[in-house]
Amino acid sequence: METVTYMINRHVIVLLLAYSILAGCSGIKTYQNTLDKNLHIKTETESGSMFSKVRAAVDIYRVDADCKIEYEGTVQLKNLSVDVGIPSSRLSYLVFVFDSSGFLSGSSNTITYSTLLKPRVGYNYDIKVRYIDDIYNVVIRETDPRMKKSPEIERNDLNDCGSF
Amino acid sequence: MKNSVFCAITLFTIFLSGCAGTMPQTADEFRKAVPGAFMAKVDTFEVDRPFIDVAKTFQSMAPKCLDVRIKTISDTYQSHQVIVAKYNPTVIVTEEKAELYVQERHEAGVLAVYKEPEKGHFLMVVDAIPLDKNRAQITMYRPSKGHDVMVKAIKGWATGENVGCPDLTK
To answer: Is A26 strand, coil or helix?
Structure first.
C-alpha cells in the first residue's frame, strides 16, 4: 500500500514537472485580459470529422511606432463567446490560430489569420470566428454604440502598418 | 497523406504540360489544356445567386484567403521534406464575366521542370457568367485529385454557403 502511494506521488511529481517544463518552453502565455472589454469574440468550430478536433485561439501582439511586434499573450477561444480588452487608439496585431489534430493519426495542422487592428475609443468590435469543415473565416465589425451600423473592418496586413 | 497530395500535384502538372516540355502560360491556354488532360477536369454548375454577388465574393475572398504561403513539413524515419508553396490569386470582373485564377509557385522543396508563368503554374481557373437576374453559371477548370478544400471553398464563394477560407494545410 505504501509502495503504491509512493509510486502515485512520484508520478504526480513527474507529471507536474513535465507540465511546468512544457508550459515554460512552449512560449505560450495567457493574455492579461484586464482592460475594458472592447472585443466580443464569438467562436464556432467543427472539424467535420469525428476523428479530429479543432481548437481556436487568438495571439495578441503590441505594435510599436516602428511596426515591430511584441507578443503579449494568447486567449483561448474555447467558449462560444469571449470578451477581450485591448488598448484603444493603439495598433495591435491579432493572430487567430486554428489548430486541428487527429485522434488516430497524431498529426496536427495549424493555419492562422492575422490582421492589424486599431480600436477607436468607445467603439466595440464584434468578431466572428469560424472553422467549419476545413473552411475558416474571421469577420470583424466595428460598432459605434451611438449608431446602428456595424461596418466590416477589412483585413490589414502587418506590411501595411506604416499607413496607419 | 501529404506525399500523395504532392504526387497528385506533380502528376497534374506533368500531364497538363502534355509531356512536351511546355506548360500553360495564360489562363486561356490552361482552359484549353484541361479538358484533355489526365488528372484534371472541367466542372460546370449553376448557382441561385446573382452574378454580381458571386463576383463580389470572388473579389473579397480571393485576396483574403488565397494570397498565402503554406509550408509543409513531412518527416518519416528516413526522410525530412520541406515544401513551401506560395499561392497567387487573380480576379478579373467585367459585366459579362468574373474570372478567378489561382496560381501556385513552389518556393522550396519542388523543382519547376518547365518554364512557369511569373505567378507560378495555373492550379485553377474559375469563370462565372450571368444566366439571368438571380442565377449564374460557374465553370471550374481544376485538378481532379487534390486541392479538395480549395475547390470546396471556391464553390462556397459561388453558392454563398459556408463562405470562408480553405485550410490549405489539409
So the answer is: helix
pLDDT in tens, A118-137: 999 999 999 999 999 999 99
Q: Which of A105, A109, A113 sits opposite B169 (nearest CB)?
A: A109
Q: Which residue from A105, A109, A136 is facing B165, i.e. has the nearest CB? A: A136
CATH topology of domain B2-159: Alpha-D-Glucose-1,6-Bisphosphate; Chain A, domain 4 (3.30.530)
Q: Report CA-CA distances (Å) from B145 to A42, B1, B154.
A: 35, 12, 16
- pLDDT (tens digit, 9 = 90+) per residue, B58-80? 999 999 999 988 888 777 778 88
- Output the furthest CA–CA distance in chain B (Å, rounded): 58
Taking the Cβ of residue A121 and every Cβ of chain B, the question of whether any pair is shorter than 8 Å is answered with no
Within 13 A of B35's CA, how many CA atoms are on the CB side?
Answer: 6
Q: Cell 469574440: give the residue.
A: A41
Kindly report the pTM of this predicted structure: 0.79
Q: Is A25 on the interface with B (CB under 8 A)?
A: no
A89 Cβ neighbours under 8 A, 6+ residues apart: A118, A119, A120, A121
Judging contacts by C-beta atoms under 8 Å, the chain A residues touching residue B153 are: 135
The mean pLDDT value for B12-26 works out to: 66
Q: What is d(CA B123, CA B68) in angstroms, rounded to the nearest whole number?
A: 14
**What residue ranges do the domains of chain B occupy?**
2-159
Give the pLDDT confidence of A54-73 residue by residue, as tens digits.
999 999 999 999 999 999 99
Residue length, chain A? 164
Going edge to edge, which strands form the sheet with A92-102? A69-76, A52-63, A92-102, A108-117
- Residue B94's CB is within 10 A of a number of other CB atoms, namely 8
**CA distances for B45 relative to A44, A112, A115, B136, B147, angstroms:** 29, 31, 34, 9, 18
Q: Name the pLDDT band for B57 (thresholds 50, 70, 90).
A: very high
